[in-house]
Amino acid sequence: MSGIAILAIDGPSASGKGSVAQRVAEALGFAYLDSGALYRLTALAAQEAGIDWSDEQGLAQIAQSLDVRFEKDLTFLGGQDVSGLIRSEVVGAGASKVAAFAAVRQALLARQRNFAVAPGLVADGRDMGSVVFPGARLKIFLTATATVRAERRYQQLIARGESADLVAITRDLQSRDERDAARKEAPLRQWDDALLLETSQLSLDQVVECVLSWWKTRTET
Ligand code: CDP
Ligand code: CDP
């Protein structure tokens, strides 16, 4: 893993991690890891198997044996296309609950590290720079105000033709961020070795440009 270039992007919900990480990975010709999808898939698979989101050992077994396939923009669980299903707020909240358990995080660790292939990987989540890839060449903490993030999520749902309620989105997003930041295991936090990128006033293009220029500077020194 040590010879493979890793760019870690962590941050709160709807800060733009996924959109930025995918575009940066494409520009650099790197693989991409959406670590949040694995927690969402664990929550969904548990729900389908009738395992409670509070049953740590049951959840860890589910996480360990996830039958997942990522194919372009699609995500398959046991052969079923669950790309839309895992993006729901209910599954997002479930992901945040199951992600608080040490045994679940441990069960997903090796699977995440397996995404690191030459020439490099862009990984997004909450603990990419702190736990999963502590040796990452560049670590970024991507954020924006809660109001801006809720508005982004709202616009994203509207663009997909889904119904959206800005008040409910704001409430869900805040309670998920609070849970993610307060937990003992891999809490959501900007660590000392991560560069802060506050994106409230920036377009997606501007953020991607900034990340690529930081990457260039970091890899040239
Ligand atoms: O992965 P994460 O939840 O952090 O965010 P996302 O799903 O990648 O982004 C949420 C939405 O914000 C997407 O529709 C992006 O196009 C949009 N957006 C952004 O990501 N960055 C900006 N600077 C502006 C908008
Ligand atoms: O796209 P968004 O930022 O809203 O969520 P996500 O990245 O898909 O993550 C869903 C949930 O999984 C988060 O609220 C976290 O609780 C958890 N997660 C985590 O604990 N560690 C990660 N590396 C990624 C996600």
UniProtKB/TrEMBL annotation:
Q: Which UniProt keywords apply?
A: ATP-binding, Cytoplasm, Kinase, Nucleotide-binding, Transferase
Q: Which GO terms describe its biological process?
A: nucleobase-containing small molecule interconversion; pyrimidine nucleotide metabolic process
What's a Gene Ontology MF term here? ATP binding
Q: Which residues form the Cytidylate kinase domain?
A: 8-214
Give the Enzyme Commission number: 2.7.4.25
Q: Where in the cell is it found?
A: Cytoplasm
Enzymatic class: transferase
The identity of this protein, by name, is: Cytidylate kinase
The encoding gene is: cmk
